[in-house]
Amino acid sequence: MLPQPTAMLPAVMPWLDLAGLAVFAVSGALVAAKHRQTMVTLVFFALITGVGGGTLRDLLIDAPVFWVHDARVPIVCLIAAIAVWATPERWWRGSALDWFDAVGLAAYAVYGAAKATGYGIPPVAAAMLGVVSACVGGIIRDVIAGEPSILMRPELYVTAAALSSTSYVILMQLGVPGAGPIAALAGFVLRGAAIRYRIALPAYPAKGWDRG
């Protein structure tokens, strides 16, 4: 393992991490609020959505699990849950959940890839770990809430996370300044377009399977 690998991350990365954490936590609290749950449940959903992907990433790269050692993480999740609880329902109607999730998706994909790279993970695997960081929290959120998983929705989701993480790895290899924000913006734009215009990849053809 490399010495002090987190010191190798660009200065902007911790801000992307907190931004992704905050909006993922909000998206988790919004799911609980939609189901008319208690404040305790809102906090639980905020935490599990915010830290789920990062926890799996850290376990896979043999890093200290980030939220166990950083007091800011549970505080951010608590604030996110309180914000959802205390604000009018009309603020969160429509596609608010999707847009908050899109911001978190892009930011977390970049940060996950960056942290994996800092721990000496090869580029391709680092990009994949960026996707894990971005998607697993939302998957856990949906499974617990009994909602259709984000993986099963028709519009682009994992692809947007992959664009962010892969763009970051490539831009860093090329030495492009501002690789983190550029890559995060790319993933957010793709996810935003998917939300707005229902863009989706072609589905697998049935090929007679539906005949029994």
Keywords for this entry:
mainly alpha; single chain; 212 residues
Task: Give a verbal description of the structure.
Helices cover 68% and strands 0% of the residues. It is built from eight helices and no strands. The longest helix has 23 residues, at 96-118. It is globular and about 45 Å long. The model is unreliable at 1-8 (pLDDT under 50).
Largest sheet: none
Percent of residues in beta strands: under 5%
| pLDDT averaged over residues | 87
Shape: globular
User: What's the quaternary structure here?
Assistant: single chain
Decide which structural class fits the backbone: mainly alpha
List low-confidence stretches: 1-8
Write the layout of secondary structure elements.
Layout: H1 13-34, H2 39-60, H3 66-69, H4 72-86, H5 96-118, H6 123-145, H7 158-174, H8 179-197
Helix pairs in contact: 1-2, 1-4, 1-5, 1-6, 2-4, 2-6, 5-6, 5-7, 5-8, 6-7, 7-8
Give a brief rundown of this model.
With 212 residues, the protein is mostly helical. Helix content is 68%, strand content 0%.
